[in-house]
Amino acid sequence: MYHSYTETSLKYDPDRCINCKRCTQVCPHAVFAEGKEHVELARPAACMECGACAKNCPVQAIEVQSGVGCAWAMIGAALRGKDMDTECSCGGEDGCCGGNSPT
Ligand code: SF4
Ligand code: SF4
Question: Which of 2, 21, 37, 65 is at 20 to 30 A from 51, Cα to Cα?
Answer without folding.
Answer: 37
